[in-house]
């Protein structure tokens, strides 16, 4: 009758017209039962004897005293340890369930009630509740989904009603057994049947069509197991079903590769290279198109290793066939930045995949990106495994290591790069690289590396791409990186002592470095443009911690970093959060966008080295240059355009989506 009444009084949207209908129905059962036994001529005692009521408490003890009988009669000598041993599985299940119910029941109740919850508050509330219960000798307690669902469906809402329920529950703890003896069993049966049907309808019946076949089968397995064998076997069945469902869905639905592409339209942070180096990198046959980037994702475990191996091979084959002249990649970058976890079996398989990249696909250099300075997201030391078989295992992880090798090669035998008549079997060994190690200074081995099947580890994708670009440039002509290496070495804040920073020699050297940087930036412009532009810059010396400008400040200058290092920080001023940081290295021009567009500063810039030397052009000098030499002033405009184009093509923008390039 109750189910029919609920069905009739529920709107099409599923909202009950009378929330207290079930409560009112329960309350009418006891009076009607008492009236029924009177009509049929039975006494209450006869009904008790027939089992229609719950049993009465013993009259020899008061209700309040009976509540504490457990602790009054407790004795270590009267414990039946055999019974305790047999009860341990149930005890363990209760403990496990009490630990699991918050992350399970709270989200489920949130869906039922349509209310957002704060999991931290829920966990703290349960912690306080169980702590107080334990201090006063009580039992563990936790939110019961079924009781709370009934409370909500009957219109329970707000702190007042919740406190009222808590108060009456505390009172019933002492007087409840006495009252229960006056309640007919059919009332409790009606409540259980109605609640059971609600839970079955919500969990099984209405779930049909909302889950795939495997998940829905797990729901039925849990329901049947818990109904026949009890809570503990049902809990175990649920855990096994969840694990199997997760493993199966991961293998079937999740691809270990998010995307792959050649690096032909990607750029690293090293955007101010010489024109000859840029020509090499932009070349269709010898440049970035020979770099293949594969981005991995999700959890990588033994079940998807065959799929991963096959997908990497298909990506290499696809890029090779679609590239101009059917040229295969020379360098492959495997990016693990989006990988959440790697199990030990998968880690060992990745080491085998690395060997397959070299032997089966004949790719000389493989670069692995960990995604963080902590290494790969796995317990096994995958970094050590990959480096153990590295042909150039002491190749330094810094992207500038190739430039350092060029400095060391200056006094060695002359290098005359020659273009091979046809593509060699192993293109990268033609670089004539020397094995080196950095222990205070560079030391050369007598013979160059002729067989280079290397594996390199980087922390970020940008670092990996910069290293790969250096490899491509060095393969054609390693001395093209000489100027860049010079700037890195001479621009070090430690190259000139702090007490000599204002000396004539230091000023002359800094002027020379600044002019070289400007010449690099204006190399495609008219003769003398760099010198004219340099005349508008003035030398500045900053100390560690100095703030060049803050986010949102007025743009009144452009600067060139010739010595030291800076850091750029993007902040959320409203939330006082640091969103991103970026290191600024020697040779960078900063602030030119704000100078040209008159826009406010987009980030905060401060000094991180002991001291930094910059050359600054103020807005007054910039406006004067526009009037005196507009053609040279246009050089700054073109630098801004080139820089923005580079930022658009930066590797961090292009891995996931390809719609950021201008049309």
Please describe the biggest sheet, giving its number of strands, its sense, and whether it closes into a barrel.
5 strands, mixed
Q: What is the CA–CA distance across the termini?
A: 68 Å
Please state the average pLDDT score.
78
**How would you sum up the global shape?**
elongated
How many H/I helices? Answer: 25
**What share of the residues lie within helices?**
40-55%
Question: Would you report the number of β strands?
Answer: 15
Please state the CA-atom Rg, rounded to the nearest Å.
37 Å
* Category from helices, strands and their pairing: alpha+beta
- Biggest sheet strand line-up: 1-2-3-4-7
Explain the overall architecture.
- With 663 residues, this protein is an alpha+beta fold.
- The chain has 25 helices and 15 strands.
- It is elongated, with a radius of gyration of 37 Å.
- The two termini are 68 Å apart.
Task: Offer a concise description of the structure.
The protein is an alpha+beta fold. It has helices at about 1-10, 20-40, 45-50, 65, 70, 80-115, 120-135, 145-155, 160-180, 185-205, 215-230, 230-255, 275-280, 305-320, 345-360, 380-390, 400-410, 460-475, 480-490, 505-520, 530-535, 590-595, 620-630, 630-650, 650-655; strands at about 255-260, 290-300, 330-340, 365-370, 440, 440, 455-460, 540-545, 545-550, 555-565, 565-570, 575-585, 590, 605, 610-620.
Key terms:
single chain; 663 residues; alpha+beta; 5-stranded mixed β-sheet; 15 strands
Q: What topology emerges from the helices and strands here?
A:
Elements: H1 2-8, H2 21-39, H3 44-49, H4 63-67, H5 69-72, H6 81-113, H7 119-135, H8 145-153, H9 158-180, H10 185-205, H11 213-229, H12 231-253, E1 257-262, H13 275-282, E2 291-300, H14 305-322, E3 331-342, H15 344-359, E4 365-369, H16 382-388, H17 401-409, E5 438-439, E6 441-442, E7 454-458, H18 461-476, H19 482-490, H20 504-521, H21 529-534, E8 538-543, E9 547-549, E10 557-563, E11 566-572, E12 577-584, E13 589-590, H22 592-597, E14 604-607, E15 611-618, H23 619-628, H24 630-648, H25 651-654
Parallel strand pairs: 2-3, 3-4, 4-7
Antiparallel strand pairs: 1-2, 5-6, 8-15, 9-14, 10-13, 10-15, 11-12, 11-14
